[in-house]
Design brief:
Ketoreductase domain-containing protein, alpha/beta, 8-stranded mixed beta sheet, binds 1,4-dihydronicotinamide adenine dinucleotide, Rossmann fold, single chain, two-stranded antiparallel ribbon, globular
Length: about 325
């Protein structure tokens, strides 16, 4: 059988860990030897109110099972305080699971500035604040593992979730950029788009489906991606009900116009179906970095081979 992946002596910060996914991660990491900072300000689903008991209950459960954890009640917007607390208690930070979140679903027409700001703040700014405070520590250690919690709504957009989707898509770009900047220091960052039963999904999905979507079924991927043996960085994974898929961009073969006065909006219109053709006998490509769309090269060779950022051949297949 495959050996168990352990986290002995690793220090993990899990934000929003008082319930749902964060709780499942915290219990799992602690059961595998990690010291866990269980952060949760104990708010309601929409970010209203606060209570220490959410984080405390998780810490109690970890301790009863013989694990090590401390509770932290700070708002993720005060990420530096969370990091300070972790350093005081354990002296290092190996893993950050940016997980805290709230919902303010509303049609864009009815969305207030506060609905927008509060959602962006908790998801995006909160992840920024914790990660920013821990970054110099991880660089100095030459070790770090970061998870950003995105969402299918962030990848694809969703009716009534303009604020949430904007924050969740932003977390992917954030993660991908940290993957570049952290690589030299063995700091890896990946984004996940989970689907699990929690108070967040309790009202939007039928009971039978929710039963198949245990939050515990997200932990194996999160733990693998944050283990010292993992080399994956800059990835995006959808996961739910035991199924994990990796996601990347796809570009069409495209159209190269002559860059002269014939390049008009009407010329674009005339060939728009070709530009937008994702079903061109499979002639699509899969850019993995900014450099993969080789604009100048396309003047020479609009088709066939190109190279990506690592100098590897990219084939239209
Ligand atoms: P949840 O509502 O059970 O957990 C979120 C936790 O974050 C709560 O315990 C809440 O008190 C805490 N929190 C909220 N604002 C905070 C703040 N400012 N500072 C510290 N803690 C704060 O929801 P769930 O489902 O466990 O969500 C976890 C993450 O996964 C969220 O980022 C969510 O957007 C994301 N997600 C969940 C999906 C699902 O199917 N459950 C789908 C896609 C994404």
């Amino acid at each position: 059988s495959t050996p168990e992946l352990r986290f002995d002596n690793r220090v993990v910060i899990v934000s929003g860990a008082g319930g749902g996914l964060g709780k499942a991660y915290s219990l799992f990491f602690a059961s595998r030897g990690a010291k866990v900072v269980v952060n949760d300000l104990g708010s309601g689903l929409k970010g209203e109110g606060s209570s220490a008991s959410a984080a405390d209950l998780v810490v109690d459960e970890i301790k009863k099972a013989g694990g090590e954890a401390i509770a932290d009640y700070n708002n993720v917007l005060e990420g530096e305080k969370i990091v300070e607390k972790a350093m005081k208690a354990y002296g290092r930070i190996d893993i950050i699971i940016n997980n805290a979140g709230i919902l303010r679903d509303k049609s864009f027409k009815s969305m207030t500035d506060k609905d927008w700001d509060d959602v962006m703040n908790v998801h995006l700014h909160g992840a920024y604040k914790i990660t920013k405070a821990a970054w110099p520590i991880m660089r100095k250690q030459k070790y770090g593992r970061v998870i950003m919690t995105s969402s299918a709504a962030g990848i694809y957009g969703n009716f009534g979730q303009a604020n949430y989707a904007a924050a969740k898509q932003a977390l992917i770009g954030f993660s991908n950029s940290l993957a570049y900047e952290g690589f030299k220091y063995n700091i890896l960052s990946n984004a996940i788009a989970p689907l699990a039963a929690s108070r967040m999904t309790a009202t939007v999905m039928p009971k039978e489906i929710l039963e198949a979507l245990k939050p515990e079924f997200i932990a194996p991927l999160v733990a693998f991606l944050t283990h010292e043996k993992c080399k994956q960085t800059g990835g995006l994974f959808e996961i739910g009900a035991g199924k994990i898929t990796a996601h990347r961009w796809q570009g069409t073969e495209g159209v190269v116009f002559k860059a002269d006065e014939s390049f008009t909006p009407a010329a674009v219109k005339a060939r728009f179906d070709e530009i937008d053709n994702f079903d061109n006998n499979g002639r699509v490509y899969y850019p993995a970095s900014m450099k993969d769309n080789d604009w100048l090269g396309k003047l020479e060779e609009a088709k066939g081979l190109s190279t990506n950022a690592k100098g590897e051949e990219l084939r239209f297949d």
